[in-house]
Amino acid sequence: MYESIKNFNKQFIYEPKIINEDNLVKKSNFIVVGMGGSALAPLLLKKYKPEINIMIHNNYGLPQINKKELENSLIILSSYSGNTEEVLDAFQKAKENNLNMAIISVGGKLLSLAKENDIPYIEIPNTGIQPRMALGYSTKAFLKLIGDENGLKEISKLSEILDPTDYEENGKILAQKLKNYVPIIYTSSNNLSIVYNWKIKLNETGKIPAFYNVLPELNHNEMTGFDAVESTRELSNKFYFIILKDEEDDKRILNRMNILEKLYKDRNLKVEIIEINGENIWHKIFSSLILADFTAYYTALEYGQDPKQVPMVEELKKLIA
């Protein structure tokens, strides 16, 4: 796990190739079916290019939209292992309805189905890492499938300008601060994809409960749950708040973050401000996520846990099977 974080920038050297490209139907609307780490990349695409029309479906089958919308979309089936139950079910539904598909995977049943049915696919490198750690590979694969050559060129620069070791020490320090607390990560709605990734990494790698929310919505509800009085203080004191601040956010949102920090600190709650910085949009995204990776990695070590494996997920799969 440590090596996969330390060498993460090398994933951006990878050049994805579409097999059966002649069968790829060009669309401007995309429906991504994926679970867990296999669904993280399309969220980042929405941050990179908000105007892009991507619907993310984290369930069995296909989204409950009208048939015309399904026919006017490219359905991208994303499963790192290629054996994800929900994604395989979506494949069958899409095939039954003769819908346009493309596949991203390292192998498994899904890739076999792509080959058998001459469906366009990208086989991302199988380096033995966890799906959540293959985010560089999968993001480039998605950019290739949607035909964004400029995005591919821009993100490839991260192989040189992103140095994961720059974030290790801060990640270790933050993990020490989080010990014995449940983190709640806040940011602007514009950075939803980043904050969601933080939560997932702390859950899967850090092996701890972690939650997230976005401003301004949380100012209208969630924060009132932490207006600690004597009878509820024991509950509130279990949380550690991380606010991801992006100076490019609406000034009114930044003002709300500053005020929220004060309100929480006035109530003796733990608050950490972390700036989202970078040379370009991709650098901003992945520098923040590398910090999250190191924080989660050292959080697991703080509790004597294995950062890599997800035994409860594997137990659930066996019980379902």
TrEMBL record:
It holds the Pfam family bact-PGI_C. InterPro entries: Glu6P/Mann6P_isomerase_C, SIS_dom, SIS_dom_sf. Keywords: Isomerase. Residues 20-151 form the SIS domain. It comes from the Bacteria. One of its GO terms (molecular function) is mannose-6-phosphate isomerase activity. CDD domains: SIS_PGI_PMI_2. GO terms for biological process: carbohydrate derivative metabolic process; carbohydrate metabolic process. Belongs to the PGI/PMI family. This is SIS domain-containing protein. It comes from Candidatus Nomurabacteria bacterium CG10_big_fil_rev_8_21_14_0_10_03_31_7.
